[in-house]
């Protein structure tokens, strides 16, 4: 339970990152952050620990249980997280939802390739608007041709995503309903390494 995710907001309630419940408890206890409940009320450590934990995820303390906060607000941090989405394999697969953009089959990442819509041999760029997920059979069928030349259609045109990668990657972990009001967008070195354009 102490390793589950807790959404961290800056002082103006913008998502900053996701931390563990263990770290969230430490920040509450040190007075660095306050917990926020479903009614958007703020609690310091003492007031949070006095709340009932019967219907919530909780951890045991000596003589009582304390509910795990799912959202905390930092008291002295205003900086907004960087909004640029890195051009990486992981983020391309996340944008395309691990789905071949030619046949529409959803596959594990290990069974997908990245395909240049306009092949590099024809001057196609390695960029957000020219690279898509493709299954191996579709990639082989398309070869070094454009989709029109191969008689294939894209499910949707590729584009730079608008979500913040920190929270998009969090979707691999549990996503808690308490996070929804604060996340208003669509969550290994190999996957997150920035690709050269």
Main sheet overview? 5 strands, mixed
* Low-confidence regions: 168-173, 185-192
Can you list the strand order of the major beta sheet? Answer: 2-1-7-3-4
Rg (CA only) = 22 Å
- Counting helices, strands and paired strands, the structural category is alpha+beta
Primary descriptors:
197 residues; alpha+beta; 9 strands; elongated
Give a description of the structure.
This protein is of the alpha+beta class and 197 residues long. It contains seven helices and nine strands; from the N terminus they run ββαββαβββαββαααα. It has a five-stranded mixed beta sheet. The chain has a two-stranded antiparallel sheet with strand order 5-6. Strands 8-9 form a two-stranded antiparallel sheet. β1 (5-9) and β2 form a beta hairpin. The protein starts with a strand and ends in a 5-residue tail after the last helix.
Compact overview of the structure:
This protein is 21% helix and 20% strand.
Structural topology:
Blueprint lengths: L4 E5 L5 E6 H10 L2 E4 L5 E2 L1 H5 L8 E4 L2 E4 L3 E4 L14 H7 L16 E5 L14 E5 H7 L4 H4 L14 H5 L19 H4 L5
Parallel strand pairs: 1-7
Antiparallel strand pairs: 1-2, 3-4, 3-7, 5-6, 8-9
């Amino acid at each position: 339970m102490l390793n589950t995710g807790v959404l961290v907001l800056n002082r103006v309630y913008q998502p900053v990152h996701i931390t563990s419940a263990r770290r969230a408890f430490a920040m509450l206890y040190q007075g660095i952050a306050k917990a926020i409940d479903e009614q958007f009320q703020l609690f310091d450590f003492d007031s949070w620990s006095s709340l009932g934990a019967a219907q919530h995820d909780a951890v045991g303390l000596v003589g009582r249980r304390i509910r795990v906060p799912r959202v905390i607000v930092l008291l002295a941090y205003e900086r907004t997280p960087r909004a640029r989405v890195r051009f990486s394999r992981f983020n391309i697969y996340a944008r395309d939802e691990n789905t071949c953009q030619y046949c529409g089959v959803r596959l594990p990442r290990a069974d997908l390739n990245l395909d240049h819509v306009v092949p590099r041999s024809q001057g196609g760029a390695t960029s957000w608007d020219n690279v898509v997920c493709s299954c191996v059979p579709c990639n082989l069928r398309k070869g070094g041709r454009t989709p029109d030349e191969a008689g294939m259609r894209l499910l949707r045109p590729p584009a730079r995503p608008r979500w913040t990668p920190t929270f998009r990657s969090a979707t691999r972990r549990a996503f808690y309903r308490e996070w929804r009001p604060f996340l208003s967008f669509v969550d290994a070195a190999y996957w997150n390494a920035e690709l050269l354009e």
